[in-house]
Design goal:
With 171 residues, this protein is α+β, with helices and mostly antiparallel strands. It folds into two domains: 85 residues, 2-Layer Sandwich (Alpha-Beta Plaits); 72 residues, Alpha-Beta Plaits, CATH 3.30.70.20. The protein is built from six helices and six strands; from the N terminus they run H-H-H-E-E-H-E-H-E-E-E-H. The structure holds iron/sulfur cluster (3 copies). One iron/sulfur cluster binds next to loops. It comes from Lysobacter cavernae.
């Protein structure tokens, strides 16, 4: 008889980093991962309150931000809905530490004119630096909020949100 996967089993696997290798993007103002998993009840209130519908139910029933669905405007509705304080704006920390990173599949980096990400960035954090041939996107780390607006609009899904410290350290 096969074992049933319960939220608790998934939680333990998440804590051990065994379920996924790619980063999990929790909703903004989430506590550090271990504390978040302890506090979150999986009630879905944050998901239901998000006016942008960018939060989804992820592994184990815990909420995740899916930038492919759109932009987080940092309105704070999700944190305000979280009575368990798994999302906590009161601590005065930035909402998260994600930053956009442009990968090798970028059309412009492959010689095809495309400025879709720049046109959708609300922070004007994407500049196109003319190099030889087609201008390519450069992220201004000081401006990028990790809002995700550029992720879903990229025709080749070349943009991901990475830990800001890793982005500042370079590719
Ligand atoms: S801050 Fe607002 S837009 Fe962002 S995930 Fe929370 S509810 Fe959605
Ligand atoms: S509102 Fe809070 S407790 Fe409920 S699912 Fe969202 S993060 Fe978890
Ligand atoms: S994630 Fe950064 S670069 Fe992308 S749209 Fe948001 S602020 Fe602009």
């Amino acid at each position: 008889m096969s074992a049933t996967v319960t939220p608790d089993l998934v939680r333990r696997a998440l804590l051990r980093g065994r379920v996924r290798a790619d980063p999990i993007h929790r909703p903004p103002w989430a506590l550090a991962e271990v504390e978040f998993l302890d506090a979150c009840t999986g009630c879905r209130a944050c998901i239901e309150r998000c006016p942008e519908q960018v939060l989804v139910r992820g592994a184990g029933g815990y909420p995740e931000f899916d930038p492919k669905r759109g932009e987080c405007t940092f309105c704070g509705e999700c944190a305000d809905a979280c009575t368990a304080r798994a999302l906590d704006r009161a601590v005065g920390q930035p909402p998260w530490h994600w930053m956009a990173s442009v990968g090798a599949d970028c059309l412009a980096r492959n010689g095809v004119v495309c400025v879709s990400c720049r046109d959708h960035c609300p922070e004007q954090a994407i500049g196109f630096r003319p190099v030889v041939g087609v201008a390519t996107p450069q992220i201004d780390n000081a401006r990028c909020t990790g809002c995700g607006a550029c992720v879903g609009v990229c025709p080749t899904a070349a943009i991901e949100l990475r830990d800001a410290a890793a982005c500042e350290a370079g590719p």
